[in-house]
Amino acid sequence: MSNTVRVQPDLKFVQELQQVGGESLKKCYQCATCSVVCPLSPADGPYPRKEMVWAQWGLKDKLVNDIDIWLCHNCGTCSDMCPRGAKPGDLLSALRNMAYRSLAKPSIIGTWMSSAKYFPILFLIPGLLYLAIWMMRAGVLGTAFPLFVAEGHELTVAAEGAIIYGGLFPGDYFIDPIFGAVFAFMLFAFAGGIANMLKGFESIPRTFIVGRGEEPSFLSCLIDTLKTEVAQHSRFANCGQEAKDVQRLTGHLFVFYSFVALMIVTGVVAFGHWFGAWFLQHVMGLEGGLAALIAWSGHTPMPLWSPVKLLANVGAAGLVYGLMKLTSRRSELDASKSTSNWYDWYLLTVIWGIAATGIGSEVFRLLGMKMLAYPTYYVHLVFVFMMLAYLPWSKLGHVVYRTVALAYARKIGRLPMGELK
Question: What is the assigned CATH class of domain 11-105?
């Protein structure tokens, strides 16, 4: 006697999925070509064929806790080979976009991140904040476009002075506290999002690997993931060797390591300022030697020959090069096989905004063009705020979510055929 299984599709979920990039999923007729050609799909329960089935049937519960949407690196091979143009790669991308909306709280930010019509809200939140600071400081200084002369640690407005962004937007009172709060908010949101994601993975069966021994710890799997799949982008490299695949890998590597370089620069400046200038010199009263060197490393604006400044400029150049690669590749996608959505272009827009305004701020400052320098720096602050504050709900959030998912997959043995060991 057979058991009857009742399938209750969530039609609203199917409609939402189509809106965020999965509009062609109903073209799929289950030939399984996508799972066969995928270089990363495991042998047991391969993707993305099963995801296409679940999506067509509106099985939301199956998909929202599916680890495979994070294991996919969206190389596009499945979509290129699909005989029906169903774009399975776009479906998995759409599922990740839906996950960004709901994993972290507050979910209202996920809603704002889901459509271009909310972009003004996302921009105006930091835009109005920094505009208020600018106007307030302009009232105190007597001008919205001040030039400064440094007298020790004090800045004085002078007609023949120089452009110093810290004079208009003081780091001690406005920049560091705001970004510190934004960073803490981002970590809190990611912690909740990761907890929700891991909770959903608990029902995933383990894969028994002959000769493997005990299941490794999550920490050891996370370290291995960071060393190989993050630091080396090994799975991106395994996605294909065509020109578009190499272009994608190169672009990702340049953007990734450029951000690492810029993060190091930010860390050195913050450490030099708060530990060197504030704690060692101001609190402890140490003026020379190592204390002076540490404080100097955090003093801005830096001379162009400073090692920290050189690293910052190399990072900026690498970021632009990587962005050019990724933007070119995305612009040249064959729309019949793969398409770009709002999440893709939002991320590129924000990172381009950070790169262009960061470089522009330096160039205009060196040229003494204060009427361009300060507005450019203002927009730079807005874009940096947008990247950090909305990170858990943006496509860039995959840097965290995918890393955790890859580590979990390594722990339970859900690996591509070539990685089983």
Answer: mainly alpha
Give the residue from 293, 299, 291, 292 showing the smallest Cα distance to 273: 299
C-alpha–C-alpha distance, residues 400 and 391, integer Å: 10
- What residue spans define the domains of the chain? 11-105, 112-419
Alpha carbon distance 371, 378 (integer Å): 12
Residue 274 near residue 298, CB atoms below 8 Å: yes
- Above 60 in pLDDT, residue 421? no
The Cα-based distances of 149 to 55, 146, 282, 299, 404 in angstroms read 63, 10, 21, 15, 49
Which residues on neighbouring strands pair with residue 150, listed in sequence order?
155
Helix/strand number for the chain, H first, E second: 19, 2
Q: What CA–CA distance (Å, rounded) separates 168 from 149? A: 13
Nearby residues of 15 by Cβ (< 8 Å), 6 or more positions away: none
Question: What is the average pLDDT across 278-283?
Answer: 83
* Nearest of 81, 49, 82 to residue 66 by alpha carbon: 49
pLDDT for residue 110: 93
Q: 285: part of which helix (H) or strand (E)?
A: none
